[in-house]
Amino acid sequence: MSQHQGEDPAPAPRWTPVLATPADLPQIQALHETIWGAGHSVDYFRWKYFDPPVDPLPPMLAKDGDRCVGVYAVISTPLLLDGERVMGCQSVDTMTHPDYRRQNMAVTLARACYAEAERRGFRLTYGTPNAEAYPLRIKHLDWTHVDEIHRWVRPLAAPARIPAPLAAPVTRVLHALARRGRLDGVTVRPITAQTPFILPAPMPPSARCMVEKSPRWFAWRYGAEPSGAYEQLTLGDPDAPEALVIFNLVREGGRPPVLLVQEWLAASAKLRLAAMRALVALAAERGCQSVTLYTNDIAAGVLLRGALFFPRPGLPLGLTGFGRYKAKAPLKRGDMSVLGGDRD
User: 77 exposed, middle or buried (CB, 10 Å; 0-12, 13-18, 19+)?
Assistant: First the structure.
């Protein structure tokens, strides 16, 4: 917007972009509390920003003197792109102190972060920003909208709109259908920092680009998260599983929990479907209201329909390539597959 005659020009920002160090964590946590309220600990942000197992990329901060007034953060993420192991990152957190809004801070910090990522040889960044942040990335950070991530739901309890006299019998029917998925040879164990992750033989890739699954990645993602409460279900010998599902229970508002699927791996489509049906049976036994999985993977969607899941509106998936790598970025619908814990 042009300045009116006689107006003083807008003052130049007092802050500068700076790559974070672990010493900045208390200020990052304090800024998060200022914006979002109490929630995550300093240890959580250390795990998220500085402890990823492959080439951690620290957040880009806006510093006004010694004060942290803004954050743009990504998670360094190993990817498989056209069969090649490459590094990318997931855009996860953007914070601007209320006193520093309308200074183009988010865009400036993101561009500085992307320049550092490109310098390190990272190929791309992807993410599922909220409704406020997504247009900013498309307009100012050269992101491309590449897909929609559906929220797939298997109901296990009657919806609230069902009249009370009918709710109980509807729920009984849903549980009876779920119990058909019970299998012998299913093992369920809590995940701890000592959990050894043994992955099934991989299926052929369903997209040009996806997160590279590995025991090392899972140990950080699910075994090391402070206050994380994940479990794993395996089919067959736990020391050589045919299928592996990682999940957690989400409890909100005093209602029965939702079982949220984070990983879903198997040596074949048949075994993958069997593992999901076994998980649904487990969820019914635990009194869950539903099983939920976020994904845009087409092959996974076919199997989920077979397991009586229904797709519901979810999240937009966007990404951009860095510098000379942009020409080969997976920018078409279906080029990148995201499932469960691949998103923050």
Answer: buried
